[in-house]
């Protein structure tokens, strides 16, 4: 299928680079689009291409995939280090990606979805709440609470050391010195790392030799991770449809935290619960099941129905309903009601 190398500028003038996928044989009409970015330190090559290719092969949709700032092919802001994650900058970059793709001649700017996984699975919860251009949110194995997650992952005796490292790094950077770094993963669980789980080490080390990925992250990244609470606006995503995919056996972004956040989200929402670990949804036997559910969610909300549930409507009626929806902020469909999420939940069946 056609794939173009693309680049776009963020609101603070950083160049981000990625790929734009369009369906084979696309006739030039306006397509809905989905924007995908990866999670904590991961690059677009880490199976995001598989999701984009799946969606574009199954649906009449365009897919924009890009590297986060300071990672992979994307630039960092002048004077700022690479390999540093500032979550609210990555959130802003999602909105800038939406701005870019909405101006593409292939894309219908009124039908844009966002997709994120792990750390970016938290980002899309926030973006979906504050950026009303988003018409569907797909959040996979999301980080929902940095504070809770940090204290699940980090041993209590390591936390004291991290606090000292955070303080020393702040002093060093204030004096113009280079930032401190810590490993993203380490084979030895007795050594501090950002993601201290065996499956994290297995996943990232498998990519290290065949990509631009580097096994380090700034100390500031960990401090910002601890204070990041993307779940704080989850109730505000509604009336934008939300699909949350939760891995039941996830030890990196624990399932109970994600499920508690999902319970607070309002309709329309759908839960996909996979009997799997954090990284299992990217490849292997769970990929087809996971991506298939996500594709059907996209089909329902931004392909067939133009954000209106029920049978496909003539374009004039659909456009009028979208206009009313945007003005009044009300859930609008052919029957003036959304379908509930109960029948849509996938409880590991």
TrEMBL record:
<dbReference type="InterPro" id="IPR000073">
    <property type="entry name" value="AB_hydrolase_1"/>
</dbReference>
<dbReference type="Pfam" id="PF12697">
    <property type="entry name" value="Abhydrolase_6"/>
</dbReference>
<protein>
    <recommendedName>
        <fullName>AB hydrolase-1 domain-containing protein</fullName>
    </recommendedName>
</protein>
<dbReference type="GO" id="GO:0016788">
    <property type="term" value="F:hydrolase activity, acting on ester bonds"/>
</dbReference>
<dbReference type="InterPro" id="IPR050261">
    <property type="entry name" value="FrsA_esterase"/>
</dbReference>
<comment type="similarity">
    <text>Belongs to the AB hydrolase superfamily. FUS2 hydrolase family.</text>
</comment>
<keyword id="KW-0378">Hydrolase</keyword>
<feature type="domain" description="AB hydrolase-1">
    <location>
        <begin position="34"/>
        <end position="279"/>
    </location>
</feature>
<dbReference type="InterPro" id="IPR029058">
    <property type="entry name" value="AB_hydrolase_fold"/>
</dbReference>
């Amino acid at each position: 299928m056609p794939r173009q190398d693309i680049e776009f500028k963020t609101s603070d003038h950083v160049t981000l680079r990625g790929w734009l996928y369009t369906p084979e044989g696309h006739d030039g009409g306006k397509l809905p689009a989905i924007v995908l970015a990866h999670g904590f330190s991961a690059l677009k090559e880490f199976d995001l291409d598989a999701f984009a290719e799946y969606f574009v092969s199954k649906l009449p949709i365009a897919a924009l995939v890009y590297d986060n700032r300071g990672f992979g092919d994307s630039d960092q802001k002048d004077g700022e280090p690479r390999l540093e994650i500032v979550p609210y900058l990555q959130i802003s970059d999602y909105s800038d990606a939406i701005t870019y793709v909405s101006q593409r001649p292939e894309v219908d700017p009124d039908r844009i979805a966002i997709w994120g996984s792990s750390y970016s699975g938290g980002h899309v919860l926030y973006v979906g709440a504050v950026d009303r251009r988003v018409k569907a949110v797909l959040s996979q194995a999301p980080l929902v609470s940095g504070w809770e997650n940090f204290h699940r992952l980090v041993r209590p005796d390591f936390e004291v050391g991290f606090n000292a490292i955070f303080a020393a790094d702040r002093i060093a950077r204030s004096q113009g010195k280079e930032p401190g770094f810590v490993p993203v993963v380490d084979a030895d669980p007795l050594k501090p790392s950002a993601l201290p789980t065996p499956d994290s080490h297995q996943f990232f080390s498998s990519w290290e030799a065949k990509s631009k990925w580097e096994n380090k992250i700034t100390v500031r990244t960990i401090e910002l991770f601890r204070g990041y609470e993307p779940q704080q606006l989850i109730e505000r995503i509604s009336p934008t449809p939300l699909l949350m995919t939760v891995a039941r056996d996830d030890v990196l972004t624990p399932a109970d935290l994600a499920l508690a956040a999902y319970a607070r989200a309002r309709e329309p929402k759908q839960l996909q619960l996979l009997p799997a670990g954090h990284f299992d949804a990217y490849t292997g036997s769970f990929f087809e099941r996971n991506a298939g559910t996500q594709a059907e969610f996209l089909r329902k909300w931004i392909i067939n129905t133009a954000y209106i549930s029920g049978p496909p409507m003539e374009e004039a009626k659909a456009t009028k309903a979208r206009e009313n929806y945007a003005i009044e902020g009300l859930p609008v469909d052919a029957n003036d009601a959304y379908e509930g999420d109960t029948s849509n939940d996938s409880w590991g069946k």
